[in-house]
Amino acid sequence: MEPNTKLYYDTNEVAEMVGCEPSALRFWEKKFPQLNPKRDARNRRRYTERDIEIIRKIMHQKDKQGRTIKGAREQLRKKEEAQLLIQRLMRVRNFLVDIRERL
Predict the structure, then answer these.
(1) Same structural domain for residues 9 and 53?
(2) Residue 77 sits in the same domain as residue 57
(3) pLDDT recorded at residue 4
(4) Is the pLDDT of residue 3 over 70?
(5) Is the same domain home to 3 and 35?
(6) Is the pLDDT at 23 greater than 90, yes or no?
(7) Which residue range or ranges hold the HTH merR-type domain (predicted)?
(8) Binning pLDDT at 50, 70 and 90, where does residue 1 land?
(9) I want to staple 72 with a disulfide (CB 3.0 to 4.6 A). Which of 35, 39, 61, 77 is the partner?
(10) Residues 42 and 13 grouped into a single domain
(11) Interatomic CA distance for residues 36 and 30, integer angstroms
């Protein structure tokens, strides 16, 4: 199976993909509420592409921008809030455009 077609990855696969230790992934799971991998029947972590994207964002904040764990967590939270606000504004805009077209 090709790596891009997988739905879930285990901890060791993800650690190898992003270039960190598996223990770092488990630590970040406790510190970042955005990072919440699913668990299988044997209680093993199963990471999705979204989880891996969050891990890469954490690593970028930490390594490239020199942020602390607290700073990286705050930055990710702010970005999520901004994305939610943009989605809400787009829905309002679409609603207003729809009303304008009906007039």
Answers:
(1) yes
(2) no
(3) 62
(4) no
(5) yes
(6) yes
(7) 8-78
(8) very low
(9) 61
(10) yes
(11) 9
Rounded to 5, what percent of the chain is helix, strand, coil?
70, 5, 25
Helix or strand holding residue 38 (H, E): strand 38-39
Read out DSSP for 9-34? B-HHHHHHHHTS-HHHHHHHHHH-TT
Tokens 């901890």 label which residue?
Answer: 11
**Domain tally for the chain?**
2
Give residue 35's domain range.
Answer: 1-63
In the predicted model, what is the mean pLDDT of the chain? 90
**Considering only CA atoms, which of 27, 28, 33 is closest in space to residue 61?**
28
E strands within 57-101?
none
| pLDDT (tens digit per residue) in 45-56 | 999 999 999 999
